[in-house]
Amino acid sequence: MVMPRAPVSNGMLVLQKSIMADNRNDLGVLILAGGQSQRMGMDKALLPFAGGTFIECIVDQCASLSNHVVISIGLGQQDSLKERFESGAQFGRVTWVEDQHRNQGPLAGIAAGLKSLEMHCRYAFVTGCDVPVVKSGLANELFRIAQQHDCRAATPVDGERIFGMTAVYRTDSWRVGNDLIRQGRLRVSSLAEQLDARKIDVADLREFDPKLESFLNINHPEAYRVFLNSQGLAADPEVMKKLRPS
């Protein structure tokens, strides 16, 4: 299924809208929120942004991508995230899943999330709770490539670097993820390599995300400050005090 790049007639416009509606069912979204945020000093999902928090902003953006949004959290994180947000209006259609492997990094979250989505859709776009700007055009392009080549994963790369946490995976790949965890191979790039992912140079994705903001993850306080400045916002001094790692 290839999405037309531009409508050329009223009929084509109707077709494009129909395909986009299908994408919402064929492509799920997995938001990874199970990290310990040690370099930040507080849960990155709760960082203030755009009148709310990172996780609220990301869910709002991902709702336009898919009817199936899953948030993967670490074991024991329900008090800090699920119970805080599950009653919110934008979280009404979100499914929460817990990692099944404690302290095994983001690969455990990817495996748990893909497994949860397998019954609903064939592919899933993966992003993190520390990526506050998600460009739907980029996600849909990765999905288009995965479908066009009938591959198990479509993963952006920059030289030797693999962006495995801003990628599209076939949802049945959770089994491969679990196998890697059992082998102690916890790098997310190992999943892309094991799946023989279709690699896409990040430069070729600027058409869909000119500033490559979908790859910007906020891991430490200074990165958070710089990100806010890039959005024309000033960091709250009181918040910054709380972010100082202990």
3D architecture notes:
- It is a single chain.
- The chain is α/β, with parallel strands linked by helices.
- It has nine helices and ten strands.
- It has helices spanning 10-26, 54-62, 82-85, 106-117, 136-149, 174-182, 188-194, 221-230, 237-243; strands at residues 27-32, 48-49, 52-53, 69-73, 94-98, 123-128, 153-158, 161-162, 167-170, 198-201.
- The strands form two sheets. Strands 1, 4, 5, 6, 7, 8, 9 and 10 form an eight-stranded mixed sheet that branches. A two-stranded antiparallel sheet has the order 2-3.
- A hairpin with a 2-residue loop joins strand 2 and strand 3.
- It is globular.
- It starts with 9 loop residues before the first helix and ends with a helix.
